[in-house]
Amino acid sequence: ASVGKNTSLEQPYILEPDLVNIGNDCVLEFETQLNTSEIKKGILEFRQVIIGDRVKIGVRSVLLGGTKVGEGCEILAKSALDLNTSFGENMMIQGAPAKVAGNTNGEVWQVKTGCSLAC
């Protein structure tokens, strides 16, 4: 498990932190859930959650096991990324189940020291 430099975690729920990798310059807003496990046919299964650099995850969004989010993505509030879902770079993602809603156009936003929001 790892959390990159300049990443802001605003009270997320991370159920199995050893299976979560978060890149540099990310923001996980309030009550984001990273859930790496599920019970399938009575068997507990685990999958990684991988978040690239410069990713912003909106309030109360949920990422399930096997999720991979590419660099520069923004996941809008209350979105749900289903099991084994992958998104490429610079995508605007929203909905439940989550779908590509647009492109971030590679816009770079930064987390400033002492700031818990994308500033």
UniProtKB/TrEMBL annotation:
It holds the Pfam family Hexapep. This is Mannose-1-phosphate guanylyltransferase. It comes from Ditylum brightwellii.
